[in-house]
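Researcher: Batch entry, complex prediction.
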Amino acid sequence: MSTLHTVNKSPFQNQTLISCLGHTKAGDSVLLIEDGVYGAMSGNAMSEVVAGMGANVKLFVLGPDVAARGIDAARVAEGFSQVDYEGFVDMAASCDRVQNWL
Amino acid sequence: MSKVKKFLYVNRKAPYGTIYAQEALEVVLIGAAFDQDVSLAFLDDGVFQLTKGQDTKEAGLKNFSPTFRALGDYEVTKLYVEQESLDERGLTLDDLQDIQYEDEDDDYAEKPSIIVVSRAGMADVMADQDVVLSF
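Model: Structure tokens for the complex:
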């Protein structure tokens, strides 16, 4: 029984990512998409918070949205796995529910 | 008839700055026609949707807050409100509308629809659903 959470807002814009990470259960997956991918970057004011709050979940980031924003793969924080659109579909199909954090 | 599913409508936005809150309520009312097990969640700025004393006349907006008190008539009787979200905003249960429903299994006794839960409790509610719709 697990949930796939998606987040599409930058953590520098609002509290959506923080709220999401505060409502996950151990073993859930959190996938950052669209402007949410900025939350997967290392070396910024949010990195430690995200790593700490995300310690009990699997962290993913949507590769095409990372590439679109010119974020170098080396800037994606440790602990995040990149998935493509196909991987996104597989994740949605294999979890019990999807919760979109807007 | 197919199996009844558990639907959770998640409200995380304040009532008038965007259309999300009003649209969520519209969807809840439409969805109520389908005899599913419906709950609403209010967290983050979503708790502002339930405050009493909203007066939109001068702002020229539609005050949809009374609609929450009608949800019981549509068998929508579970409004989960997150304690931490209230605390962070300096709100208590007294600041929210008194929302009740008539329990047809208990001689139509009036019972409160609002259920205050902790953040961890809210995570449990979310993980217990078949479908989660966010607004």
